[in-house]
Amino acid sequence: MIEGLEFARQAARIAHEHRSEDVVVLDLRGICSVADFFVIATGTSDRQLRAVADHIDEYARTVGQARYGVSGYEASTWILADYVDVVIHLFDPQKREYYDLELLWGDAPRVAWE
What we know:
By secondary structure, the chain is an alpha+beta fold. Helix content is 37%, strand content 24%.
């Protein structure tokens, strides 16, 4: 199984490669007990958000990362995919601005994923 940090970086790359915008990885280790990393990205359409979620999940299976749960897949305004150590947040632009997770977790350092 791949380490959480590398999985988060690769998930960010996948989101970027599939035309997600403003992709961010936050390092929550020592700050949050829910997860070690958040991957946050903005999609351009509901179809694109679902495709990104599917591609990340497909990659996760190849590296032994089991998805614990997913929420918001059908509505596709905020898809949350929980891989225990890494939580993926795929937003439409309005939900991303409204929830502003980067501000909420402002103490979390950003991880270089490029």
